Amino acid sequence: MKDFFKFTLATITGIVVSSIVLFFIGIMILVGLMSVSESETVINKSSVMMLDLSGELRERSQENPFEEFFGDEDYVSYGLDDILSSIQKAKDHNDIKGIYIQATHLSTSFAALQEIRDALADFKTTGKFIVSYGDVYTQGLYYLSSVSDKVLLNPKGRVEWKGLASTPIFYKDLLEKLGIEMQIFKVGTYKSAVEPYINTEMSEANREQVKEYISSIWSQLVEDVSISRNISADSLNMIADKMVMFSQAEDILNYGLVDSLIYKNDVRDYLKSLANIDKDGKLSVYNLAEMVNVRRNVPKDKSGNIIAVYYAAGGIDMGSSSYSTEETIISSKVIRDLKKLKDQESVKAVVLRVNSGGGSAYGSEQIWHAVEELKAEKPVIVSMGNYAASGGYYISCSADCIVAEPTTLTGSIGIFGMMPNIGGLTKKVGLTFDVVKTNKFSDFGALGRGLNNDEKSLLQMMVNDGYDLFLTRCADGRNMPKEEIAKVAEGRVWTGSKAKELGLVDELGGLDKALQIAIEKADVEGYTVVSYPEKEDFFSLFLKEKGESYIESKLLKSKLGDYYNQLNFIKSIENADLIQARLPFDLNIK
Questions:
Q1: DSSP label of 158
Q2: What's the sign of the alpha-carbon dihedral 577, 583, 588, 590?
Q3: Where are the extended beta strands (E) located within 122-257?
Q4: Which residues neighbour 20 within 8 Å (Cβ) at sequence distance 6 or greater?
């Protein structure tokens, strides 16, 4: 009888556990089926597209199997690809009369904002309207929204317009208190990625380059806003010096930064009047998720020719958590993918979309070689996003043509290595070490001691060789003498506009410009643009990722805020290569 009860209890427990597991699997499957079976969006007459911007921007949208359950509905991850394609659809669709921008907060860099802004400016050429509204405009979203025909502000709202500043964080004193010394090996006077670990402030060289590139970005923002708002550049700088964030809405209106003060509840009626709809009539407003499912009214190409857009975004071989919202470039995967594009006869040209501050020098070299092999078979055009610097420039430099936004950060041609010496920490906690070895360098990198002079010389030699190879790749790719490349290298960061003057970039523009060049070089009449790598579906991601890691990253982001990126980078170092070609992990431009 005792065994019977034990068996019965075990059976009931198994049934309950199985039911719970099947229940959650069923929910996941249902959500997956819902996402897969989303129907085409049909646009009603006299409609408006809404860009409700509150979250973070990535290069491409990607389904998230855990977002349905643990996501923050007020903080969404947007794909730049979805935004640009939706604006184009709205431009082409006769029943969409305008675009409404609801500006809240968008975590991204200015190059991406400039690309969206240019797409909106192109949308306006049709005669359709753009209206933006904000309770509080962040500086980035004000820059984006300033292209609107009408910029609306809450009567008690604010506009951030104050100029740019870079405020890097330095860890040297903290590391010393812990008993950790960062042993640094680098080439490049301006290679500043290592400075937070060995300095307590910017070096003069770094201060010089940061001042130049943030001034260049700010000048671009001022120029664009000046043209859109018909306010002189001098006046915009004067307004920035007044810190209008703390001014009354009426003063902001008088400065000409906005057109009207209006409460959010009244915006719909305002949009109706622009769309020629009676106040009592119905206005159809389609958000980004709905616009993604609008069919483009273009004839289907039957040529079979493909212009490929390959996305390479994130740190190069920097490792990642089990589920991280951060984009990463895995060199081995990129190499396989580029080989497939090289061998695929229907692919007539490739646009390599690079949005990377670099990473592993070794991984960068491997991708460079894959790009070289691809270029031998078909045209390769690089489109630079927010960043294409250090390793990001390494993988770009051999393309047939390089296109960057004026505010893209690029260059940073330099190499560094970093190895911690935790000898001071081990002494503090009472650890001691001994060694028996067969050869001179057998205990290289041993825990508890720093590198000796011979070991330091070997590492510096390795870094020097890597830098020389980097210069060679850039000189060959750009068809410039090596000594000329060396003059603009030294790890220095340039904006896209300055990089064009220096010969590091060929054209200024966004992805559309790069596609236009690729199509011309491919010399084809008919073509279809296809994006690679193929996005993973719901089920693949669900089987691959770990929900607890996603929840952990969400919690850390909510608690750490701006410090999350720094922590995430430090965590990734354990999986990173010793020799790095990368920007500082957080430029902290605000």
A1: E
A2: negative
A3: 129-137, 150-159, 181-187
A4: none
DSSP classification of residue 301: P
The secondary structure of 333-368 as a DSSP string is HHHHHHHHHHH-TTEEEEEEEEEE-EEEHHHHHHHH
Question: Helices marked H in 109-169 — which ranges?
Answer: 110-124, 139-145
E strand or H helix at 542, and its extent? helix 538-544
Q: Are strands 493-495 and 409-411 parallel, antiparallel or unpaired?
A: antiparallel
CB-count burial class (<10 Å; 0-12, 13-18, 19+) for 539:
middle
Instruction: Answer whether 54's CB lies under 8 Å from 104's CB.
Output: yes
**Residue 35 and residue 538 in contact, taking contact as beta carbons nearer than 8 Å:** yes
437: which 2 tokens? 């070895």
In a 3-state reduction of DSSP, which class is residue 534? coil
Q: How far apart are CA 16 and CA 401, in angstroms?
A: 61
**Distance (Å, rounded) from C-alpha 47 to C-alpha 284?**
5
Amino acid in position 33: L
DSSP-assigned beta bridge partners for residue 220:
none
Q: How far apart are the first and last CA of the chain?
A: 73
Specify whether the CB–CB gap between 283 and 271 falls below 8 A.
yes
Task: Please state, in angstroms and rounded to a whole number, the distance separating the CA atoms of residues 134 and 141.
Answer: 9
Structure-block tokens of residue 18: 């199985």
Provide the β-strand partners of residue 153: 134, 261
Give the contacts of 399 (CB within 8 A, at least 6 positions apart).
352, 371, 375, 380, 381, 382, 477
Cα 493 to Cα 215, 216, 357, 510: the distances in Å are 13, 12, 10, 19
Domain annotation for the chain: domains and CATH numbers: 47-162+243-292 (3.90.226.10), 303-582 (3.90.226.10)
pLDDT digits (tens, 9 = 90+) for 4-48: 445 555 555 555 545 554 455 555 555 554 444 457 888 999 999
Task: Name the pTM for this structure.
Answer: 0.86
Cross-strand pairs, 493: 411
Q: Determine how β-strand 315-316 pairs with β-strand 328-329.
A: parallel
Which pLDDT tens digit goes with each residue over 44-99? Answer: 999 999 999 998 899 988 665 545 544 455 557 899 999 999 999 999 999 999 99
